[in-house]
Design brief:
With 696 residues, the chain is an alpha/beta fold. It has 28 helices and 20 strands. Among the domains are: 41-163, Serine Threonine Protein Phosphatase 5, Tetratricopeptide repeat; 401-425 and 437-516, no CATH class; 523-696, Leucine-rich repeat, LRR (right-handed beta-alpha superhelix) (Alpha-Beta Horseshoe), CATH 3.80.10.10. The N and C termini lie far apart (121 Å).
Length: 696
């Protein structure tokens, strides 16, 4: 082995072997890594001088004494700041300072005592007792005064806890239920977050939690947002009682939180979920929430107005919620696509009974798999689709009783009783193998259709079963329009009770024939948004022997003589005979034609009228309505309901005459410029009349 070479210089980069002199060591130890503040400046200077004189013991003694003083001052200052924070209701900061007191001085009672006092200010006696016990165990037993202070604090908190009355737990359960019935849902949610005892006792009463309604009052309203969040926070605790959730105008974050609460809870009774005008960025969390309620959910409603919202995954919804009976999806600004709808399972048909779809556009290729899955549906509403949807409905949905296509209005012409009959009759169809008898409700908007083959075929096949029919026929002058719709003349709707029709001048003769010969038992007729009503139409209406309700709205022109003759025909029928008048209600609203004195006089002569509704009408004769009201008072027909709104022709004298009609029971007056409180007092004086008015 070669010998190591001797050298006076150390090896390069070998700092560990460098010689260090005592002077160099002293200079390193004298370095200052932190400079003091003004409070300890004098002590620091004195200790630095002792260090410079090598009086190390003097520097140690002086620094130690000052450190002890500063530690006591720190604890005292934290205590003062905690008190100040608590007096200004900043309890979070006060608890932080009290926690620092315990951290810096765990063997002293000050931090535990201050924390206990803060808990007592918040009426949290149990927490004050716990922190006092922690202090008793931590503080040395030889500090008798501090131990006594902690024990006294514990005893004070215990005494207050024993004297505290928990009204919710002491109140009899039946009285508690009555109190909860009168509280808003937001207050109930706040009460549930007071303590566990309140939550356990109040969450078992099912009635106030059965229906949850959440609606944002406006953008930037933090108070309403806090109330909604408060309700959402308690949803998992009351989830077993919730049967219906209806939210309106919530932002995406609030919707996501709601879905999270549904996932977290046990919603084993939830039957209805409605999301109206809510914003959501995606439906992932929503589908997870649906999975939690898939066995009980029966009704689902999704309404969005944001054009940037994703398409609701209807196919996935139908495949997931097999017990769903009603699905409503209205996204008027969004085009339905196959990718957005998602895959629809056809292996197991859905139990859906009512389907309502409204998009900016939905192609028949997208609609076909949905209808193929919903073979049991009995009420079908489709908006913005091709007329070929009629063929899809006939092919895939044989049990449909109510069918609406391309109608912008939300509600159908059927009544609530009719809807209940449509849905409930599904159980009867399950017990029989007989084929479906046909549609009872049809509503079609056909203004853009150039041909009438498919609608005519649908009406022909169901002419013997229809109860309600609403038709919006083409208004434009389409070539061969009359020829296309002439087959309507030969149809007889033997069970038709209600007819809503909108048409153009070209089809007036066709509509008149349908009314005259095709509706033998018609009871309700509504003609609206029509250019004009001809003499033939009025003559056809006058021949309806069972007509009870007539509505004419948004009509620019009418044949005045025809309207007068129609009213005179109703007035001329004698009660008790075969052709007795059955007309009970009439509505004239939003029309531009002039209501003459002769029209009003003929209307007042109808002896069977019970309800009159007039709104936004004009008349050239300012005294025409006065004579109409006077005639009602003199003839005293059985009229019991009268609605007048936005009429320039109604005067004080007319109101006074109406107040003398003996049979009148309900009066609504709005937007009557020439009516003052003087005549309104006359109506108020009649105790038999229920009055609603904006006249003050």
């Amino acid at each position: 082995m070669p010998k190591r070479k001797h050298s006076d210089e150390p090896p390069p980069n070998d700092t560990k072997r460098l010689a260090t002199t005592p002077t160099q060591v002293a200079s390193r130890l004298d370095l200052r890594y932190c400079m003091p503040g003004n409070v300890a400046r004098s002590t620091f200077d004195k200790c630095s001088a002792d260090l410079g004189r090598s009086d190390f013991q003097g520097a140690i003694t002086g620094a130690t004494s000052t450190i002890d003083d500063l530690h006591d001052s720190l604890i005292a200052l934290l205590d003062i700041r905690a008190i100040s924070y608590s007096r200004t209701m900043q309890f979070d900061k006060a608890f932080q300072d009290a926690s620092l007191m315990i951290r810096y001085a765990p063997l002293r009672a000050a931090g535990y005592l201050r924390t206990a006092e803060l808990y007592l200010l918040q009426c949290r006696q149990l927490a004050a007792m716990r922190i006092s016990q922690q202090g008793i165990k931590s503080v040395p037993t030889d500090r008798y005064d501090e131990q006594k202070q902690l024990q006294d604090c514990y005893n004070a908190a215990k005494t207050r806890q024993e004297k505290r009355i928990n009204f919710i737990t002491k109140l009899p359960y039946d009285l508690l239920c009555q109190v909860m019935d009168h509280l808003p849902i937001y207050n109930l949610a706040q009460a549930l977050q007071v303590c566990r005892d309140w939550r356990d006792r109040m969450s078992v009463y099912p009635k106030p939690w059965a229906s949850i309604y959440l609606m944002e009052s406006g953008i930037g309203c933090s108070e309403k947002g806090d109330e909604i969040n408060s309700v959402m926070n308690v949803l998992p605790h009351v989830s077993r009682n919730v049967e219906k959730i209806h939210i309106t105008c919530l932002e995406s974050e609030q919707c996501e939180k709601l879905f999270s609460m549904i996932i977290k809870g046990t919603f084993n009774r939830l039957q209805r979920l409605q999301l109206a005008i809510c914003t959501t960025s995606n439906y992932c969390r929503f589908m997870l929430a649906l999975w939690q309620t898939k066995d009980t959910l029966q009704e689902l409603c999704i309404v969005t107005v944001d054009e940037n919202s994703p398409v609701a995954p209807i196919g996935v919804i139908l495949s997931t919620c097999r017990n769903l009976q009603r699905l409503e999806c209205r996204q008027h600004r969004i085009t339905a696509t196959a990718d957005g709808i998602g895959a629809v399972s056809t292996s197991r048909p859905s139990s859906l009974l009512e389907l309502d779809l409204a998009f900016a556009q939905i192609d028949t290729a997208v609609l076909a798999p949905i209808l193929r899955c919903c073979r049991k549906v009995r009420k079908l509403n489709i908006h913005s689709c091709q007329i070929e949807a009629i063929d899809l409905m006939r092919a895939f949905c044989p049990d449909v009783k109510s069918f609406t296509i391309n109608v912008t209005a939300h509600d159908t012409p059927s009544t609530e009783e009719d809807n209940q009959h449509i849905i409930s009759s599904s159980s009867a169809s399950k017990r029989t193998t007989e084929p479906s008898m046909g549609l009872t409700h049809i509503m079609m908007h056909l203004t853009q259709e150039r041909t009438a083959d498919k609608p005519i075929r649908l009406l022909t096949d169901n002419s013997n079963t229809l109860n309600n029919l609403s038709l919006t026929l083409p208004i434009d002058n389409i070539p061969n329009l009359v020829q296309h719709w002439s087959p309507l003349r030969s149809l007889v709707f033997s069970k038709l009770i209600r007819l809503d029709v909108t048409f153009g001048v070209v089809l007036s003769d066709v509509v008149a024939t349908v009314i005259r010969h095709g509706c033998p038992i018609l009871e309700e007729l509504f003609i609206g948004n029509t250019e004009s009503i001809s003499l033939d139409i009025f003559q056809a209406i006058s021949q309806l022997r069972r007509l009870k309700d007539l509505k004419l709205a948004e009509i620019p022109y009418v044949n005045e003589q025809g309207m007068i003759q129609m009213f005179e025909s109703f007035a001329g029928r004698q009660q008790g005979q075969e052709r007795a008048c059955t007309l009970r209600a009439i509505e004239l609203s939003g029309s531009e034609f002039e209501v003459s004195d002769a029209i009003l006089q003929a209307l007042a002569d109808i002896p069977s009228l019970e309800r009159i509704y007039m709104s936004e009408l004009t008349t050239m004769d300012r005294y025409a309505f006065d004579r109409f009201a006077r005639k009602l008072r003199e003839r005293s027909p059985p009229i019991h309901t009268l609605h007048l709104s936005d009429l320039e022709c109604v005067s004080e004298e007319a109101i006074i005459d109406l107040s003398a009609v003996e049979s009148l029971r309900s009066v609504e007056l709005f937007g009557l410029r020439h009516v003052t409180s003087q005549s309104i007092e006359k109506l108020y004086s009649n105790k038999t009349i229920a009055l609603e008015t904006d006249v003050t």
